[in-house]
Design goal:
- The structure is a homodimer of 305-residue chains.
- Chain A has 305 residues and is mostly helical.
- Chain A has one domain: Farnesyl Diphosphate Synthase.
- In chain A, 67% of the residues lie in helices and 1% in strands.
- Chain A has 15 helices and 2 strands.
- Chain A has a two-stranded antiparallel sheet.
- In chain A, a hairpin with a 2-residue loop joins strand 1 and strand 2.
- The interface between A and B is large, with 59 and 58 residues.
């Protein structure tokens, strides 16, 4: 999958972690979403089409990496990772709908409403949304009900109007507004940052790390979240649709202000690099057990899709 | 609001309970959904438009009535009732979308995608969906995390692909299929019954009634759920759009099999009445404390909207 001049993820220290989490998330969706063999069949087929076999699995990777730092069982962490990935996937399905971004390509394959139809896409998104909370509420995710309910609360807040969905609304408004850098930053902190922050928080919640003792992790998540979005804007600005697996150049076409339109590509890239250095500094109290988180931070700024 | 020959709800013993729950659910949505004063403003306005000031609040009424039978605090029960109503409202918003039922009227006012736009309707539905789980996860709903997580699990299962969303998928498939009575029954048990059953279950969960000790309540919920749908089919078949507050005659137009098309209106009405008697028999072990549940059962079969 690598080409001249393009950083090859498979050669990075992150390669093993990325391959492992991708396999585990697919296996968990496969286990928890069996085909029902009745008229709901195509709903579950649609959920599986969207949820399995694609995506970087960045949120599960963050969640399981933090959980592993604190000795949480792999099975618990992967289940919670599958829940947050289900939220991410549902948001992509709804975001791709004709009435939203009207995208035909996602992870290099037709979007769900193209492969199936719009009504099925709405329902499959809704079903993955409920599925996420079902998985978190299940005792198999954690034996401790305090932990499970804190996971639900964290994911609910991060994904609703105070988080991701609120950011998506701002993104819709952005097409007809002249947002300044502060507003674009706020938009992205909600649209992308809230769920990345929840991923890191949920890993620490599984380990029963108290809220006050995970301030540095939230700082790390905030910085990589913003850097992630700046790089996304750069990919949209200068990217390769085949490599990105989705349409590019959409922001400029829609007349949206982005980090790139407001800062220019050079300053935007500098800003992303600065944020990544800052994110890594937040992990100073940790030794080699945080190496995967450090590698994730570097990967975010070096990726080209 | 009453007219000659039409049963007047305000004259029934249920009148006080219906008026009270309507006021309490509106007040709770009002409290928990403050306008944010930024670019997310219209998202929260859309959530409030859809969630407040309309609907029979049947699910919160069932939940709070069961909770009250077992002495649960009113505040806890109303919060849980607001959560299940948020799920019901989100499902109506998405069901009304052009790619689904394409309805322009709901509770006598324009549907959300007409009053706002389609993208806002998708996001407001998604936001009410997450909101439901946020409300349940909040310690204000119950001090006991076991109770809160059981509420989340029950509502998640009832609303996802194994419940309501699965039933909605079957309903879409129904337009191009010749469903028999057994399949229509299964469809309706999922589409409407699952959430009505969850309402009754959640009231009992708040009261820490063990699963085995609420079999009769689930029987009650199953019977009123089916009766409710038969009456809905009768309203669609013979109803008055102005009274129903939504379009009628849609099932026949869509070529869908319903209880009325399969049984005929007479047998369908007999079946609904039989189910209601059966539902009331499930409450035989209860004294006057279950009178509201008995009245709800009778109201379901007597209503004309």
């Amino acid at each position: 999958m690598s080409a001249a001049g393009i950083p090859d993820v498979t050669a990075s220290p992150l390669a093993g972690a990325l391959a492992q989490i991708a396999q585990e998330i697919d296996a968990t969706f496969d286990m928890l979403l069996p085909l029902p063999g009745d008229a709901r069949q195509c709903l579950v087929e649609a959920m599986r089409y969207a949820a399995m076999g694609g995506g970087k699995r960045l949120r599960p990777l963050l969640l399981t990496s933090v959980a592993e730092m604190y000795g949480v069982s792999r099975d618990s962490a992967v289940r919670a990772g599958t829940a947050i990935e289900a939220i991410h996937v549902y948001s992509l399905i709804h975001d791709d709908l004709p009435c939203m971004d009207n995208d035909a390509l996602r992870h290099g394959k037709p979007t769900l409403h193209i492969a199936f139809d719009e009504a099925t896409a709405v329902l499959a998104g809704d079903s993955l949304h409920a599925f996420a909370f079902e998985v978190l509420a299940d005792p198999a995710t954690s034996a401790d009900p305090f932990t499970r309910i804190e996971l639900v609360q964290t994911l609910g807040q991060a994904s609703g109007w105070q988080g991701m969905a609120g950011g998506q609304m701002m993104d819709l408004v952005a097409e007809n507004s002249e947002f300044d850098l502060q507003t674009v930053t706020r938009l992205q902190q909600l649209k992308t940052g809230a769920l990345l922050g929840a991923a890191v928080d949920m890993g620490a919640i599984l380990a029963k790390v108290p809220y006050e003792a995970r301030t540095h992790l939230r700082g790390y998540a905030r910085d990589i979240g913003l850097a992630f979005q700046i790089v996304d804007d750069l990919i949209d600005y200068e990217g390769d649709a085949a490599l990105a697996g989705k349409a590019v150049g959409k922001d400029a076409a829609a007349g949206k202000e982005t980090f790139v339109s407001l800062l220019g590509p050079e300053r935007a890239r500098d800003q992303a690099r600065m944020l990544i250095e800052q994110a890594i500094q937040h992990l100073a109290q940790h030794g080699p057990e945080a190496d995967v988180l450090r590698a994730v931070a570097r990967y975010i700024v070096e990726r080209n899709h």
